[in-house]
Amino acid sequence: MTMITYANDDTSSRPDVRKASPAGHAAPKQRRKKRKTSGRSAGSYAVIAAVTVFVLAFLAPFGIILVNSFKTSADYRSNGSLSWPEQWNWGVIGEVWERVDFSQKLVNSIQISLGVVVIAVVLALFNAYAIGIGRVRWRTAFLVFFLGVNVLPQEGLVYPIYYLFKELGLYDGKLGYTILVGITYSAFGTYLLSSVFSSFPRELIEAASMDGASRWTILWRIVLPMSWPTLSVMCVFFFVWSWNEFLYPLVLLISNNKQTVPLGLSVMQGQYTSDPTALSAAALLGVIPMIVFFLIFQRTLTRGLTAGAVK
């Protein structure tokens, strides 16, 4: 009995090792976690600083244009382009708007760009469906042809297109110009969609064919919904490219009431006359529609670009 009592007393007098050991190991782990957290914070701050510098460098020219758009000509010539306006000239935008007939130019650009998007996307969809899914003969030759159309410079095509439009009676017409640009852009769309449709799951096409679906039904019920992210990105790109076109409308659209925004704003710069503040205001008027367009369709563009990265 006495020995058992001593054993119990010895056991009760021992230090609680089990409680002390986890606490001893917990401190180094906490220190390691703190080091990792501080390292991530430093890296995050570096990335944020780099992105901020890049954004400021990108937005600096737009800020200079915005400031110079509301200066007077005397203020610009005396203080330069980087100074703050001594007196804000709010009427320069209205003067440029009336001088170039910006309302008509804006309507023309919207009509032409939307028409180009419809023509280019429809033609590219049909061509890519025949090449990528239909597996037509001479598929590689067709792809090389469409790639060659994209490689050809516009300057080499202006001369024959000018005389072709003269012969067909399409010269100085918005319809002929819209068809031309739409067909030109459809070559790029065909090449892009063909690569997308070539990796399309054949099991879906075969299953739909066994259920009695026609090729038209397969296109509109299966292929089109699954390829809509790519088509939405194409629509955005085609609209922006068509809006910024300068060489083709310069040659093919000579009437003032049929010209687009970039071509209409070019009249602000003459051979012997130059008004920097008016040019800045014209550039501001030309870029505002594109900014509004991207703000409206930024989600569509982001979803289309990231659709292939997330399965």
Structure explained in plain terms:
This protein has 311 residues and is mainly alpha-helical. It has 2 domains: 18-68; 99-306, MetI-like fold. Helices cover 78% and strands 0% of the residues. It has 14 helices and no strands. The chain is globular, with a radius of gyration of 32 Å.
The biggest sheet amounts to: none
Within the CATH hierarchy, at the fold level, what is the topology of the largest domain? MetI-like fold
Q: What general form does the structure show?
A: globular
Structural class: mainly alpha
Q: What is the percentage of strand-forming residues?
A: under 5%
Q: Number of helical runs?
A: 14
Query: What series of H and E elements makes up the topology?
Result: HHHHHHHHHHHHHH
Straight-line N-to-C gap = 74 Å
* The CATH architecture of the largest domain: Orthogonal Bundle
Please mark out the parts with pLDDT under 50 across 5 or more consecutive residues, or reply none. Answer: 1-26
Number of extended strands: 0
Calculate Rg over CA atoms.
32 Å
Q: Please, what is the average pLDDT?
A: 80
- CATH C-level label of the largest domain: Mainly Alpha
Main features:
14 helices; 311 residues; 2 domains; single chain
In short:
With 311 residues, the protein is mainly α. The protein is built from 14 helices and no strands. It starts with a helix and ends in a 5-residue tail after the last helix.
Secondary-structure map:
Layout lengths: L1 H12 L3 H52 L4 H7 L12 H9 L1 H32 L5 H13 L2 H15 L5 H25 L3 H9 L4 H12 L1 H16 L3 H6 L8 H5 L10 H31 L5
Helix pairs in contact: 2-14, 4-14, 5-8, 5-11, 6-8, 8-11, 11-14
